[in-house]
From TrEMBL:
The keyword Ribosomal protein does not apply. InterPro entries: CheY-like_superfamily, NreC/VraR/RcsB-like_REC, Sig_transdc_resp-reg_C-effctor, Sig_transdc_resp-reg_receiver, Tscrpt_reg_LuxR_C, WalR-like. This is DNA-binding response regulator, NarL/FixJ family, contains REC and HTH domains. Pfam families: GerE (PF00196), Response_reg (PF00072). It comes from Paractinoplanes atraurantiacus. Gene3D superfamilies: 3.40.50.2300.
Length: 205
């Protein structure tokens, strides 16, 4: 019997998941929690085979909870089950130790099969999530900005003009422009807004 803990802040979602999973003869829900911290406490107290973890909950996020559960108990597998599939959400969850990432539009049979696969130690990913991870792996590494270029761009992001930045950093306006032009080249952009946006996408700001 595969023992499962459900972590989701919506009681209706937990009730629906419990009903779907317990229709399967080899699956049983042994506990529920409505927040990340409660999920950690419940998982460590009950030692289930699988934790189905929502990502965004008011009482504490699922990524932090996943990290804490996998750090404290290697025998518990965490499967993320969420409506969110942004690149950032997926990468954070996998880096935290999640053994899989599923979306809430999965069918009951897909969910049950995913739980079984995770219990066997397999990594389970929704097709769109797998595509995202492949794309991330293939993505070239972010460009390296110097400390000064990063500093200048951070002030640009705050809305300061070149003159304002020069006064803040005690450098000339011409030097500010030079730093920005080098930054534009490294980020392959042509204006300030694109530079800030691209830098944020690469995690440089």
């Amino acid at each position: 019997m595969i023992r499962i803990v459900l972590v989701d802040d919506h009681p209706v979602v937990r009730h629906g998941l419990r009903g779907m999973l317990e229709r399967e003869p080899d699956l049983t829900v042994v506990g529920e929690a409505s927040s990340g911290p409660e999920g950690v406490a419940t998982a460590l107290a009950l030692h289930p085979d699988i934790v189905l973890m929502d990502l965004r909950m008011p009482g504490g996020d699922g990524v932090t909870a996943t990290e804490q559960i996998t750090a404290k108990s290697t025998g518990i597998r965490v499967l993320v089950l969420t409506t969110y599939e942004s690149d950032r959400d997926i990468l954070r969850a996998i880096e935290a130790g999640a053994g899989g990432y599923l979306l809430k539009d999965a069918s009951p049979s897909e969910l049950a099969d995913a739980v079984r696969a995770a219990a066997r130690g397999e990594t389970v990913l929704a097709p769109s999530v797998a595509s995202t991870l492949v794309r991330q792996v293939r993505k070239p590494p972010p460009p390296a900005l110097s400390a000064r270029e990063t500093e200048v761009l951070r002030l640009v992001a705050k809305g300061l003009t070149n003159a304002d930045i020069g006064r803040t950093l005690y450098i000339s306006e011409a030097t500010v422009k030079t730093h920005l032009l080098r930054t534009f080249t490294k980020l392959d952009v042509t204006d300030r807004t694109a530079a800030v946006t691209t830098a944020m996408e690469h995690g440089l700001l």
